[in-house]
Design goal:
Helices cover 41% and strands 22% of the residues. With 191 residues, it is α/β, with parallel strands linked by helices. Strands 3-2-1-4-5-6-7 form a 7-stranded mixed beta sheet, with helices on one face. Helix 5 links the parallel strand 4 and strand 5. The protein is globular, with a radius of gyration of 16 Å. The termini are close together. The structure holds glycinamide ribonucleotide.
C-alpha cells in the first residue's frame, strides 16, 4: 500500500500544492493530510480545493503535541513534510517520526537559518550580505530550527538588481523542481 504523507504549512502553501499534485500524478505515495498553525493560512484553501483533509491547530495544541500526534496517527501518516511551516514541531511529534520528517529552507544552510528566518526575511538577509549565490536546503527536522542533518542542497545565482521577490521566485523554482522528488525518494526508501 502507498505510504501516506502529511504536510505542515503556515502560509501560502505553493509547495504544499506542488507536492500534492506531484504525488497525484506519480501515484507513488499519497498526501493524505495538511496541518497548519494558522487558521487563515491560504494552504487550507488549496487543500480544500484539492480535496485533501486539512486541520488547523491552536498554539496550545501545537505546544502540547498530543492532538497533532492523534490526527497523524488516525490518518496512518508514515512521513511528515514541512513546507513553509513556521512554528516549532513538538518533541512528541518529532520523536514519533525519527528519520521520517523533513523541512525545506530557502537558503544554503547553515547560512541564513534559525528562528525568525523564513520567507522573504531570508532573501533580504542574503541580499544585504552581498551573497552571489543562494539556494535551498532540504534537511531532516530536529529540536532546533534549521539544524537537522542536511539531505541535499541546490544552488542558484543571486543576480545584480535582485529584490527579495525576484530572488524568492528563483528559489521557489528550485523548491518546486526538487522537493517533491526528494521526498519521493525518501518515502520509497522506507520500504
Ligand atoms: C518556502 O520558500 C520555504 O522554503 C520557506 O517558506 C516558503 C513557503 O512558501 N520556509 C522557510 O522559510 C522555513 N524556515 P509556500 O507557502 O508558498 O510553500
Amino acid at each position: 500500500m502507498n505510504k501516506k504523507i502529511a504536510i505542515l504549512a503556515s502560509g501560502n502553501g505553493t509547495n504544499a500544492e506542488n507536492i500534492i499534485r506531484y504525488f497525484r500524478s506519480r501515484g507513488t505515495a499519497e498526501v493524505s493530510l495538511v496541518l497548519t498553525n494558522r487558521p487563515t493560512a491560504y494552504v487550507l484553501q488549496r487543500a480544500a480545493s484539492l480535496g485533501v483533509p486539512a486541520f488547523s491547530f491552536t498554539r496550545d495544541e501545537w505546544a502540547d503535541g498530543r492532538p497533532i500526534l492523534d490526527v497523524l496517527q488516525a490518518h496512518g501518516v508514515d512521513f511528515v513534510v514541512l513546507a513553509g511551516f513556521l512554528a516549532r514541531v513538538p518533541d512528541n511529534v518529532l520523536h514519533a517520526y525519527p528519520g521520517r520528517m523533513v523541512n525545506i529552507h530557502p537558503s544554503l544552510l547553515p547560512k541564513f537559518g534559525g528562528k525568525g528566518m523564513y520567507g522573504d526575511r531570508v532573501h533580504q538577509a542574503v541580499l544585504e550580505a552581498g551573497e552571489t549565490e543562494s539556494g535551498i536546503t532540504i534537511h531532516y527536522t530536529n529540536e532546533h530550527y534549521d539544524e537537522g542533518a542536511v539531505i541535499c542542497q541546490y544552488r542558484c545565482p543571486v543576480l545584480p538588481g535582485d529584490t527579495p521577490e525576484s530572488l524568492a521566485q528563483r528559489v521557489h523554482t528550485l523548491e518546486y523542481e526538487h522537493y517533491p522528488r526528494v521526498v519521493e525518494e525518501l518515502v520509497l526508501a522506507l520500504g
